[in-house]
Amino acid sequence: MNDDMPSWVEAFPAAITVSAKDGTILYMNAASSRAFASRGGREALVGRNLAACHKPSSNAIMEALQAEGKTNSYTVKKGEAHKFIYQAPWYEGGEVAGLVEISMEIPPELPHFDRG
User: 73 — phi, psi (to 5°)?
Assistant: First the structure.
């Protein structure tokens, strides 16, 4: 799958991780590889199953996202870093083929604007 990704995806500053429907990690961009360097980065994780990296409650959420075709988003603080996490199914031939997770650092106090 790495050869199919445009070069901007590899260089994108947010961590992008793509998995197959069975949970196998297919792709991690450079930021994702750095984010998971303590677990071996993409060299160790691509080809492994997400279930091995998450607790059962997280696995249940990922399964539900795929089954229902829904998205999941939340913020988290890890150390001093504040992150926004967005998880969504990706599709092939109109069918859910797996999940994409985008994780990006955000400021501790994120501005909000109502533009409606």
Answer: -140, 145
12-52 pLDDT per residue, tens: 999 999 999 999 999 999 999 999 999 999 999 999 999 88
2-106 belongs to which homologous superfamily? PAS domain (3.30.450.20)
Among 8, 2, 26, which Cα is nearest to 100's? Answer: 26
For the chain, domain boundaries: 2-106
| pTM confidence score | 0.90
